[in-house]
Design goal:
The chain has four helices and five strands. It has a five-stranded antiparallel sheet with strand order 1-2-3-5-4. Strand 4 (86-90) and strand 5 form a beta hairpin. It has helices at residues 3-6, 9-18, 67-82, 103-120; strands at residues 23-30, 34-42, 48-57, 86-90, 94-101. By secondary structure, the chain is α+β, with helices and mostly antiparallel strands. The longest helix is centred in the last third of the chain and has 18 residues, at 103-120. It has one domain (3-120): Yope Regulator, Chain: A (2-Layer Sandwich), CATH 3.30.1460. Helix 3 (67-82) runs antiparallel to helix 4 (103-120). Helices cover 39% and strands 33% of the residues.
Length: 122
């Protein structure tokens, strides 16, 4: 499926308007080491704020620490931080990487980060 078809701003906005927290989210890609999604939050004045979120899992497959995966994880996080993503530790063994942007830039940014993350965790 083409990336632009996955990103339906009108659908996200409608879901956000009727959600309790005025937010909607859609997962676009999921692999063992990461998940990529887009979302929108509505401000108190109903102005939409679109974002891309990438969850990077620190120990995705087992209880055993895999140093090769950890090195790839650090490389990925550094690359995302260089792209101006905020990095936040989350419960559940992951780091949330988020970037707010205009809806017109989301499809292009998604394509770039999807390529980046897939290349690192290949």
């Amino acid at each position: 499926m083409e990336d632009n078809k996955l990103i339906n701003a009108k659908e996200l906005l409608e879901k956000a308007k009727f959600s309790q927290h005025k937010e909607a989210y859609r997962t676009l890609d999921r692999k063992t080491n990461f998940r990529i999604g887009i979302g929108v939050r509505l401000t108190s004045t109903n102005i939409p704020s679109f974002f891309i979120e990438i969850l990077i899992y620190l120990c995705p497959t087992s209880q055993k620490t895999d140093l090769d995966i950890m090195q790839k994880t650090v490389t990925c996080l550094k690359n995302l931080q260089a792209r101006k993503y905020s990095l936040t530790c989350q419960d559940g063994n992951c780091i949330s990487c988020e970037k707010t942007m205009s809806i017109k830039n989301i499809a292009e940014e998604y394509k770039k980060v999807k390529t980046l993350v897939n290349a690192i965790f290949k």
